[in-house]
Design a protein that fits this description.
The complex is a heterodimer of chains A (about 200) and B (about 90).
Chain A (H helix, E strand, L loop, with lengths): L7 H32 L1 H8 L4 H26 L3 H31 L7 H5 L2 H37 L8 H25 L3
Helix pairs in contact in A: 1-2, 1-6, 1-7, 2-6, 3-4, 3-7, 4-6, 6-7
Chain B lengths: L9 H22 L6 H21 L7 H26 L2
The chains are: A mainly alpha (about 200), B mainly alpha (about 90).
Chain lengths: ~200, ~90
């Protein structure tokens, strides 16, 4: 009996509160970016030019599309199309993998050029450039952890849909997993604009 | 479960997705043109447009009750105060 009483609004509002704390977490990193951009505008441009716009844009399209899949999966489930919903969630998780693989190649390419936190090369380049790369690694690293967690949460929701625990009448788990995933996408929109497109 | 839960149509979601793809193209294109200090504001402006699309449609904020919108406004205002006060200090020190 109590099983049927679910506070849908409360569950969703709780998720939003959590997302606000995430916003403040990444907000702190973006404040650091703004302060150092002001101090080292030239160095930030030089360092930013070394990031691949092609890979950054590809990852932006990957995350936007994965966000699109999640949004579609919720509508599909609400309309009772369980199979389509499952496929869309699966697609989202696959895209999370694609994103991480591209990120892996980006990071290792940087490592090969001696660009990683605490490397001898980082001490030689201009302070503004090493600060840019340090912030880049912290921000994309923290974001990458969020991608992994998001994929796991989505896998959990997918399992719920598969077993029928999450369904067209009770989809809060998928909704909240989706909200988390969209946040991951939102943060990336700003990472992309600030780190890859700086000119 | 609330009965009045709004179901967002496939069409709306697809339209928003296409808009997001176009905006990504626009922001990449704009970043290759040298606008001086304006570049960062164009990039941030487009990023803000993209995020409001994601928040209002993908995250269903448009269909939520005013309570959700109020809390979002508070959270964004707090962030804006943090960023704003820091920048006032850094820019006019």
């Amino acid at each position: 009996m109590s099983e049927h009483h679910k506070d849908y609004t409360g569950a969703k509002l709780g998720m939003w509160f959590f997302l606000f704390t995430e916003l403040m977490l990444f907000g702190g990193l973006f404040i650091l970016y703004a302060v150092y951009l002001k101090r080292y505008p030239k160095e930030f441009v030089t360092a930013g030019d070394q990031l691949s716009v092609v890979l950054g844009t590809t990852n932006t399209l990957v995350l936007l599309t994965s966000s699109f899949f999640v949004a579609m999966s919720i509508t599909a489930l609400q309309r009772g199309d369980k199979k389509f919903s499952l496929r869309l969630i699966g697609g989202t998780i696959a895209f999370a993998g694609v994103f991480l693989i591209i990120k892996y190649f980006e990071w290792t390419a940087k490592f090969h050029h001696g660009v990683y936190p605490g490397s001898p090369h980082m001490k030689e380049i201009a302070p503004g450039e090493s600060i840019f790369f340090s912030l880049y690694f912290i921000t994309t690293g923290l974001h990458g952890i969020h991608v992994i967690i998001g994929a796991l949460v989505l896998a959990w929701a997918m399992l719920g849909v598969k077993t029928g625990k999450v369904n067209g009448k009770d989809w809060i788990l998928l909704e909240n997993a989706g909200l988390y995933w969209h946040l991951v996408d939102l943060i990336w929109i700003y990472v992309f604009a600030l780190y890859y497109l700086v000119l | 479960m609330t009965k009045h839960e709004h179901i967002v149509s496939y069409k709306t979601i697809i339209t928003v997705w296409l808009l997001l793809l176009v905006l990504t193209g626009v922001t990449v294109g704009a970043s290759r043109i040298d606008l001086g200090a304006l570049n960062i504001w164009v990039a941030l402006g487009i990023a803000a447009t993209k995020s409001s699309l994601v928040i209002s449609i993908f995250m269903h904020m448009k269909y939520e009750s005013p309570v959700f919108k109020l809390f979002l406004l508070i959270a964004l205002s707090v962030l804006a105060i943090f960023v704003g006060l820091t920048l006032i200090d850094v820019l006019y020190r």
